[in-house]
Structures are given as C-alpha cells and as structure tokens.
Amino acid sequence: MHRLKQVICGLALSAVAQLTLADQAKKTIVIAGDDYCPLSCNPASGQNGFAYEFAQQLYGQLGWEVRYEFVPFQRALKYFKEGRVDLIPGAAKDDNPHFAQAALSSVAVMSPRMCFYTRAQETWTYQSTASLLQGRLGVIAGYFYWPELLSYIAQHQNDGKVDSIAADNPIELSMRKLKAGRFDYFAELRPAVEYQLMKLRMKEAIREANCVLSLPLHMAFRPDFAGAKELNAHWDKHYLQFLKSPQGIAILQKYGLSIKSIME
Fold first, then answer.
1. Which CATH class is domain 26-110+216-262?
2. What are the distances in angstroms from CA 64 to CA 9, 30, 36, 55, 113?
3. Alpha carbon 73 to chain centroid distance?
4. Domain boundaries along the sequence of the chain
5. CATH number of 113-214
6. Angle formed by the axes of helices 50-60 and 246-254, nearest 10°
7. How do residues 224-237 score in pLDDT, each as one tens digit?
8. pTM, whole model, 2 decimals?
C-alpha cells in the first residue's frame, strides 16, 4: 500500500511538472493599444481593434498566443522601451524616433490618408503649415506626425497656436474640443476619424479639410523580442492575402471597414 502511494504521488508530481513546463513553453505576445479605433480599441467597447484580431489570426498560425493590454499611447511607448509589452501596432516607419530600433514588419497593417478636419461651418482648408497660423491646431501628445507638421508644432507649442491632448480617448476628445471651439483643426488618419464620427454622431458637425499624404503604419516588435524575425516574415508573406480572405473581410466589416479604406 505504501508503495502504491509513492507511485501515485510520483505520477501526480510528474503531471504537475509537465503542466508547468508546458505553461513556460507557451509563446505569448503582449500587444499594447490605446483608444485608436478601429486600429486598436478600448476593450470596454467589446472590441480590441482589427490590428489585434489580425495579429491573433496570423501569429496564431505559428503557435503564438496574443494578449491585449489597453493603455494610453505614451504609457505604451514607455512599456515598450522597458520590455513590458512586445508589440505596438501602427508604427510609422520613417524618421520616427519611437521605433528607431524596433523590428518592424515590411508590409503595413494599414496605409490610410492623413487628413485635416475642421468644423463643418468653417471655410478653412489646409494648404501648407502657413495656413495653420489662421487658427489653433489640436495635436495628440506623443504621436508622430510628418516632419513639416512636427516642425510647426515644435515652433508654436508655447505661443497658443497648438493645443496638446493627452487622454485615454484622444480622437474622441479632439472631436469634442474641435466642436466646442477649443481649437480650430486637427490632423488625423481618415479611418480613425470616420469611425469616431459615426460612433459619436458628429458627421454633420465636422468636415474634412484636405488630405496631405498616405501614412503606412507597421507592426512594431521591441528589438530584443525573440520571435520578431519569424513573426514579421510570416506577416509580410501572408497579411495582404489574409486581408482578401472571407475571414479577413469579415474582421474589417465588424469595424465598418473595407480593404480600400485602410489601404488608400
């Protein structure tokens, strides 16, 4: 009887050890996102964003589990540098100091138009940074814009011409402040604005005031993440094909999107 107990205990300990090893061997990617729907969303909305869903599908094909952490963008950058999160979706590739050392995918998760927005009743249209002097510009703290706009922001951040926003819901707050007259225009990616205009029922209050460029946004792994090379290679090979699949189209449609709307 004593011998039987020893055998049972030994089998139990072996099973626990195997479970522990399996858990340790589980490959997990922690993806950080702020309220930048439809790319990344507040989980309270019932959705994490299409970047997370595509990552879940494509990285899952290689046996990786994807976990979503919802944090403001500036904190996401801090966690990224500290190694507390592994991946940030939507990284601008060129001249972006936040991701200078990151392992970026070659194929962008989206490449939409960057446009200016103002109140519907205003006649203002963006022509150049000089036209921004006609009023006050709203910007999101920590976000990377294109070089000319970054230069303008740096020159005017202390003279009342720029209003910087740091919040968990930066685009929604930008729209509300614009509508309330706190500033006169802001620049943002078209799909993000269209999504919020529909959600907040502000389509009659805010209008597009010229688009400037297309901005490819990439999946960015921290440089020391062990699986980055393999995962980026898999993404680059399969992402565009997956976008066109019934499953990919269904994910986009959940967010009111099409391939054309994210790849302009």
1. alpha beta
2. 33, 10, 24, 10, 31
3. 9
4. 26-110+216-262, 113-214
5. 3.40.190.10
6. 150
7. 999 999 999 999 99
8. 0.82
